[in-house]
Structure formats: C-alpha cells, structure tokens
Amino acid sequence: ITLQNNLLSIVSSSRCHHFRKDADKLEKVQRRATKLIKGVENMTYKEKLGLFNPKNSSFEVYCDMESMGGGWTVLQMRQDGSINFNRTWNDYKKGFGNLSREFWLGNDKIHLLTKSKDMQLRIELEDFNGIREYAKYEQFYVANEYLKYRLSVSGYSGTAGDALHFSKHYNHDQKFFTTPDKDNDKYLSGNCGAYYSSGWWFDKCLSANLNGKYYHQKYKGVRNGIFWGTWHDVSNGLPDGYRQAFKQVKMMIRPNGFVP
C-alpha cells in the first residue's frame, strides 16, 4: 500500500463504481488499512485501488471516487514524467507503471473492462498554465488482441474539443493500436508509433496522443509529446513555434447510466 497525496487502499470489489454502494465493505477496508499503515489518520476514499475480478483472473485498478460523482476506473495517468511510455507491444498489452503515479493499465485489461460495450470515457487534461479541460465520450470500447485492440469511441461532449474525430484524415475511431515495434496504423510511409515514441490508436498519424513523451515545459521539434489537437487551437503549434505540453492527463471509464 502506498501513500501519495491521498490514501490508496486495496479493496476487494468487482468494479470501482461499486464502492459508493458498499459502505460496509469500505468501512472494513478502512479498518484493515489503518492496521497496515501506522500513523495514518483522516482516511479518504477519493482515490483507491480496487480489485477487478474477471473470470479466471484478477487485477488491481485505480479508482477515482470524486470526479463527477466518482465510480471511475482509471486506464491511464500522467503527472510527472516518471514512467517512460515509449514501450513495446507486449508492454502495452500487459500494462506498465505505478498505479499510484503514472501508468498504462494494459490493453488486455482495458478490453476486459470495456467488452460490455456500455462504458463511457472521460479524459481530463491540465496544461502548465493551470488550464483544465475535459473530453467525455458516451461510448468507448477496445477490442481484443486478435483485432489489434481496435478502438471504438463516439458521443463526444466537453470543453477540450473532440480530438479523436479531428478530420477525415485524422480520426482515431476504429483504428488499430500501434506501438514502435508493431505498425498497425494507416500511415504508408512509416510507423507512427516509432515516430511519435509511444503506443496509441494512430491514424496517419495523429490528432491526439495521450501516451506521448512527458515534457515539463513547451518544446520544439517533432510533436512527440502528449498531444490533444483541439486544445485551444494548438494543432499547428503555439504562436512562437513551440509545442503545447501537458502537466496532467487522466483517462477513466465507468458504465453509462451510473448513479453516484
């Protein structure tokens, strides 16, 4: 169990969205965690580790219990550049990073979590000027490895703009997952994953890439950083020729029709 800003506790629950409906279980977990962590007081369930139990397997997930009523299972988080996202197909398949800091949950796990095809996606972004925006999609599904983790996403609303459906040539919906060592994108002259140093659902190549390199400030050169092409009209770069950098990014899902 790890502490960072908020208490993280391991909870035996099939989904993050079950937490609020199971107060007795939460209270038991709090008592257990208090015994495990000496000196911890004023416990909170703003953010916790849950345990997802699909058939014949189980894995920990990170739960956001506060944003827009809570119940979110976090798929990806960026906040300090501590984890390298320039990874192989197998790394993105299995997942990597630290659930309490920066991570990619793993494409196999994301498929299991979304295979009901009734999940909504929320993306939260913050730049280094403290500006925060979000993009919400009413439908989000990732296929299995045989189908190359093809992305299905639709039903946008929010303030960050719909960068996943930017234009005819830059549309990430229905695209296969690509990594630097496995080229499944639509770009005929090369591998978008290798060029932009990450795994993502590239088209030819991108109008969004939340797995790009973490820059601690605006930068110049190849747009290989975290990118959201509709962010305050920065798709062509900032006026001074620099690229936009993001301080924090979070991708998370919960069922449609969720009631806090």
Automatic annotation (TrEMBL):
Which controlled-vocabulary keywords does the entry list? Disulfide bond
Q: Show the SUPFAM superfamilies listed in the entry.
A: Fibrinogen C-terminal domain-like (SSF56496)
Q: Where is the Fibrinogen C-terminal domain?
A: 16-257
Q: Which GO terms describe its cellular component?
A: extracellular space
Look up the domain of life of the source.
Eukaryota
Q: Which Pfam families match?
A: Fibrinogen_C
Q: What is this protein called?
A: Fibrinogen C-terminal domain-containing protein
Species this protein is from: Chelonoidis abingdonii
